[in-house]
């Protein structure tokens, strides 16, 4: 399940970015909800919020490292906790989506623009960014609320030999 979800996030992210490149490259921004939500094509050579702009090679290496760490963490500690696996899968899919952009294009395609107040616009983002943030939030919730604690064996699972009476 987690790898299928990560793959679905990756595919959705790449499909929406291709749509944005095709539909927004030669036109002005499209206001979906005036004064709130606009589709506007942007190219980000940095990390989140444009930090570390122009560091594509370093960001590629970091993305690969993060994906490997998430896969390892998921395999070793999260197999018994479905919400934790979902959070990890969302982050892997999002990181992979932005990694594909960096390797293929040299930058990340962003296109979702949200105006929070009349004077403040949130930094432009994409589906991968949403998956990363939602996955991180879900993981944090699960870890901080203790829901990632190991669950007792299911009733139909035989008890270990030392526990039999």
SS field, number of helical segments? 4
Sequence stretches where pLDDT stays below 50 over 5 or more residues = none
- Overall, the morphology is globular
Task: Please tell me how large the radius of gyration is.
Answer: 20 Å
Order of helices and strands: HEEHHEEH
Helical content band: 40-55%
Record the strand order, biggest sheet: 1-2-3-4
Q: Proportion of β residues?
A: 5-15%
Average pLDDT, rounded to a whole number, is: 84
- Category by helix and strand content: alpha+beta
- What is the number of E strands? 4
Largest sheet: 4 strands, antiparallel
What oligomeric state is this?
A: single chain
Separation, N- and C-terminal Cα atoms = 37 Å
Description of the structure:
Helix content is 53%, strand content 15%. The protein is of the alpha+beta class. It has a domain at 1-18 and 54-149. It has a four-stranded antiparallel β-sheet with strand order 1-2-3-4. Helix 2 runs antiparallel to helix 3 (82-105) and helix 3 packs antiparallel against helix 4. The mean pLDDT is 84.
Layout: helices, strands, pairs:
Blueprint (H helix, E strand, L loop, with lengths): L1 H23 L5 E4 L3 E8 L11 H22 L4 H24 L2 E10 L2 E2 L5 H18 L21
Antiparallel strand pairs: 1-2, 2-3, 3-4
């Amino acid at each position: 399940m987690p790898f299928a979800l990560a793959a679905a996030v990756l595919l959705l992210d790449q499909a929406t970015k291709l749509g944005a490149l095709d539909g927004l490259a030669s036109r002005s921004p499209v206001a979906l909800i005036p004064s709130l939500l606009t589709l506007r094509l942007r190219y980000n050579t940095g990390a989140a919020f444009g930090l570390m702009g122009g560091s594509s090679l370093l960001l590629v290496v970091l993305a690969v490292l993060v994906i490997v760490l998430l896969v390892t963490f998921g395999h070793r500690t999260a197999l018994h906790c479905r919400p934790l696996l979902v959070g990890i899968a969302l982050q892997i899919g999002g990181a992979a989506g932005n990694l594909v952009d960096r390797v293929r294009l040299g930058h990340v395609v962003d296109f979702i623009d949200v105006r929070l107040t009349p004077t403040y616009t949130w930094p432009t983002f994409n589906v991968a960014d949403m998956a990363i943030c939602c996955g991180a939030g879900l993981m944090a919730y699960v870890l901080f609320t203790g829901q990632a604690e190991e669950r007792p064996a299911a009733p139909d699972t035989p008890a270990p030999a030392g526990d039999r009476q």
